[in-house]
Amino acid sequence: IFSGPISFLKSAPQLQFLPDPTAPEIAFAGRSNVGKSSLINALTGRNGLARTSNTPGRTQELNFFDIGDTSNGPPIFRICDMPGYGFAKAPPKVVQKWRYLINDYLRGRQVLKRTFVLIDSRHGIKNTDENVLEMLDKAAVSYRIVMTKADKVKTTELEATKEKVIAAAKKHPAAHPELIITSSEKKQGIDALRMAVLEAVQI
Ligand code: GTP
Ligand code: MG
Fold it and tell me: What is the pTM assigned to this prediction?
């Protein structure tokens, strides 16, 4: 599936611009700069598919990608790359707009099969992450926690953070109990992520 056609579909700055719900979706959520867009590029094996940047706040709209051929109808599934949450340097109005967009999409999207919540291996779960996990629990959206940038920490540090994140995840009913540890840079954990994605869309 990941070696077949994959293409950018559209950007939705507001909910009214979402694609028609004609295919199952998965979403990548997480704090600004956690590595969502980079991980989508690693997952799909296409550099530059999702736009990445060193400056937090790069992705400002919901960006949809079609996985599979679309010449005869809907794709096999879609990936949604989300704006980051918890970006303190953006103007408060913009932060609020993103929060509504993210929350409304995650809570109300019928075709959303699973959300991958990305957590930076250097930082672990922060308050803003906690709030999102609680919101997903309340909305009964199933999600899976993915650690990113594993190449940036020493093995001992990674193990300690993993334990903490697993303990935190246990308190969240909608969280999958197993973590996926990734590095887009080193292409670590990408096969495990692909399996988890295919499982989520039931292929
Ligand atoms: P926003 O769209 O701003 O919310 O950010 P994002 O979560 O999409 O992050 P993005 O993928 O743009 O990556 C942010 C920065 O982290 C970029 O400079 C990436 O090169 C870097 N980065 C992403 N993944 C990794 C990784 O696995 N390892 C390392 N070392 N750097 C990474
Ligand atoms: Mg991004």
Answer: 0.96
